[in-house]
Queue: 2 jobs
Job 1
Amino acid sequence: MKRYPPINPKVRKILHGADYNPDQWLDTPEVLAEDLRLMKLAHVNCASVGIFAWAKLEPEEGRFDFSWLDQIMDNLYKNGVYTILATPSGARPAWMSAKYPEVLRVQPNRQRILHGRRHNHCFTSPVYREKVRIINTKLAERYKEHPGLLIWHVSNEYNGECHCELCQEAFREWLKKKYDGDLEKLNKAWWNAFWSHTYTDWSQIQSPAPHGEELVHGLNLDWKRFVTHQTVDFFKHEIAPLKEITPEIPVTTNLMGTYPGLDYWKLAKEMDVVSWDSYPLWHGEKPNWQVGASTAFLHDLNRSLKGGKPFMLMESTPSVTNWCKVAKLKRPGMHVLASLQAVAHGSDTVQYFQWRKSRGCSEKFHGAVVDHCGHEHTRVFREVAACGKILEQLDDVVGTTVESQVAIIYDWENRWAIEDAQGPRNEKKDYQQTCEKHYQPFWQQGVPVDIINMDCDFSSYKLLVAPMMYMVRPGVAERLEQFVASGGTLVATYLSGIVDENDLCFLGGFPGPLRKVLGVWSEEIDALYDDDVNYVVLKDSPGKEYEAIELCDLIHAETAEVLATYKDDFYAGRPALTRNKFGAGNAYYIAFRSREDFLRDFYNHLIEALEIPKVLPAALPLGVTAQKRTDGQHDFIFIMNFNSDEQTVDIGDFELTDLIDGSIVKGSLKLPGYGVRILKAGSAVVELFASR
Ligand code: GLA
Ligand code: ZN
C-alpha cells in the first residue's frame, strides 16, 4: 500500500487556508495586520495569494511592483502561514486589453469581447502568452528562495473558448496533424457527405458557430478536443518557467468538478497535484444526503484523476455562495462535516474562497472567513477555527489514500457525444445524474469508489460500472472483454456502444463492440414521456416490480441469461436485465432507466455476492456514510452524518481511537446531526476488518 509524500514535504500537515486578496487592501495596513492575528486564531497554515493581482504586480506595461507581495509573503511566513502563490493570468490589467486587443476573446458569434470580467483571454494569442511568460518568470525568480513558497496556483479555473482568427488557424493546424494532412480523411470522419458539408480546402473549416456550423457532430467533438488541447498547451506554457526556476515547487490549477468544457483527464496529467473548487448547495432543493453523495462523487473523481494521489480542496465556502438562486446559510456543524468529507475522500487540504469578504464588486456578499464586521466573534469564524483545530490532529492522515474495488466510468468525451446527440430523448439525457445514481448505493453502504474514464486501467477493480457508455473509443471494448474474462464484473446500461470516437454509429448492431462481452443485441430504444412508465419484473422473484422510465432498450439476449423482463407494452416479456458469463467473469446489461430503488437492490446484491468490503460491516442509516483512508498499517475511518438529527452507527466490537478527542470507542456510536467522527484503527484491527 502506498503512502504518498505530502504535497510539499515542507509541510507534513493537512493544509488549512483560503484565497487571500491583500491586493484589495493595500491602503489599509491595519486590515492586513489584523489578518495575521485572525489567521492564527483560525488555525490557518496557508493562503492562496495573488490570484487576480496582475494590475498590482504590473501596474504599467513593463513596470513591476513586487514590494507589497514581498511584505505579505514575509509576514505570512513569520506567522506560520505558507503561500500558495498564484500566477495572475486569470484576469488581465486594463492597459493590456487596450493596447493589445488580440488578447481579448472572440465569442462563438465572432464578436470580440470588451475588457472586463475575468477568465476570458485568448489561449492562442502570442502577446498574451508572452506577457504571461514574463510575469510568471519574474514571480518565480523573485520567490524561488522564499521559505514560505509552497505550491504554485496557476491561473484560476481555466475555462471557456476563443474563436478568433488565431484560434481558427491553430484549430486547422491541429486538425491537419490529427488527420495526417488528409482532408478526405477528415471529411469521412465527420460524415461530411451529409448536407453537402464536404470541405475542399482546409481554410473552409471554421469552429462551431450559432450562425454557422453546429450540427456536424464530428466537428463539435474535435473542436472540444482542440479547446482542451489548447488550454493544456497554455497551462504547459504557464508552468514552463515555474518548472525551470522552481522545480521542487508543485504546480496545480483549480478545477471545477465536472465542468463540461475541458477534459480534465488531459489537464490533470500536467499537474503535480490536482485541486478543485467545491460549492455544494446544502440545505437546498435536494436532500442533504443526496448533495453529500454528489459531492463525494466529485471528490472521488478528483482523487482518481491522479490514480489515488491526495488532492486539494482549493476552494469551498465557509458560509454561503452568492451566485446561486438562494444563498442559504450552512447550518451549524455543516461546515466541519463538509470540510472533513473532502479529507475523507482523499483531500490533504481544506481551503476557502475566501479569507476576507471584498468590500465592493460582485463578490462582496460571498461567504468568507472574515466578514465585513472584521472580527472573529462570528459563528462562521468560530466554525472555521474549530475545523482548523481538528485538522491539526490529522497529521497521520496526510498522504494516505483510499482503496477502491469498485470504479464508475464517467467520461468527458462520452458526455460531449451524448449531449450532442439528437434523440432518443432530447430532454433529461442526464448522463452525469445517471452516473451519480449508480454511485449512490455504494455511498450509502460506505463502499469506496473510484471515478475513472474509459482509458484508465481496469485491472485492479472487482466491479466496473459503465453507465450510458454511448461512445466506445478504439481498444476499450477489448480491454473490457479482458477485464471480464479474467474474473471482473461489468455493469453496462441502455444507450451503450452506439458511436465510435468520431461520433459515427457502429454498424451491424448495437451495442457495437460491446455486443460480445454483454451478449445482447439492442434492436431499438423506446423513449418514454415523463408521465409514461413501464415495469420490470425479476425472473426469480416474480412479485417484485420496478418502474422503468424515460429510456427502455429493446434487446435480444444472445449469449446472455435473462434476469428480468418488461411487463407492459408491445415489448412485454422481453429482456430488461441480463447477465452474460464471459470467461471467468460476468457482464450485466441494465436495459432500462430505473429509479433509485432498483439500483439500490441491484448493487446491494452485487456488493454481497462479490464480497466487496464496506468500511463498516453493519448497515448504515440513510444519510450516514463511512469512508476510509489507509496507509496499509493504519486505517482512518470517517463516519459522517448528513442528516440534521442524531443517528446511531454500529462500529462492531473493534476498539478504535477517536482522532479528535483521543477516546477509545466501540460498539454503537451516536452521531449528532451533521456530526462526524474520525477513528483510527491500528494494524491488528485493519486485519480483522479485512477478514470480515
Ligand atoms: C470560483 C472562483 C473564485 C470565486 C468563487 C466564488 O470558484 O475561483 O474566484 O469567484 O468561484 O464562489
Ligand atoms: Zn483566440
Job 2
Amino acid sequence: MDIVICKSKEQASYMVAAYIDRAIRKNPRTVLGLATGSTPILMYKELIRRHKECGLDFSQVHSWNLDEYLGLEGTHPASYRYFMNEQLFDHINIDKANTHVPDGMATDYEAAAAAYEEGIRADGGIDIQVLGIGSDGHIGFNEPATSLSSRTHVQTLMLGTRQDNARLFFGGDLAAVPTRAITMGTGTVLDSRVAILLAFGKGKAPAIAGAVEGAISHMNQASALQLHRDAKFFIDEEAASLLKHADFYKAVYADSDLRSLEA
Ligand code: F6R
C-alpha cells in the first residue's frame, strides 16, 4: 500500500487527477472505476480543468461507477448517475455511451448485477478504481460483514450510512434516503489494476486507521485493500491523524516516484 499524507484535500485531489491524467495520456482507452460522494468532487474539478485547459482527452475513456441507490431514476437529483453527469461527464468529452452506473431501477437486480460484472470484464477490467471511504469503512456500498470477495450485489445500507448521506436528499430528509443500493462488490474492487482511495477530515480517521493498520476484516471493508496488488491512499492530515506510523509513511513517500505528481 502507498500511503500519501497530503497537506490538504486540494493537494490530494490535484495529485490523483495528475495520476489519472498521466494514465489517460499513456493509454487513451483507460477504463476508470469512479466514485460519488463529497470526497472526489475536487478531483473531478481538476480533471475538468485539465480537459478544458490542458487538452486532456476523454473521448476513448470508459467508466464504471461503484454504486447506485435502488429505486432512483438517473434523473433524480440524488441519484449517482445524476451526480456523475453534473460533477464530471457533462464537462468533459467522454462519450456517455461509454459511462456506466448500476441501474437502480432494474426489476431483476440479480440479473442486472451479473450483467454489470460481465460488462466490466468484457470492457477489459478496471485500470484505475477511485474510492472514497465511509465512516464505517465501507468502499462502494459494501457495509460491514459483507464478504470481502463479494461481487456486484444488492446491499442493505446501515442507518449510519443513510444518515451520513441524508444531506443530499432535500436538505437532510432521512426518510427519503433509499434503504438499499446496488454496488460493485469488494471482490470486484480488488480486481482493479490500481485502486486509489481518497479520504479527508477527522471523521474518516478511525476508518482509515482500521483500513491501513488494522487486521483485514469484513468489519472494515477498506482493510481488504491490504490484499490489493496496487492500492494507493491519498489522505489529508486529519484523516491520517490516528495512524501510528505516519512518519514512516512520509519517509517512504519521500523516496517514491509519487512525489512527481505534486504541483
Ligand atoms: C460512493 C461510494 C461511497 C463513498 C463513501 C464516502 O460512490 O461508493 O463508498 O465513497 O460513502 O462518501 P463521502 O465522500 O460523501 O464522504
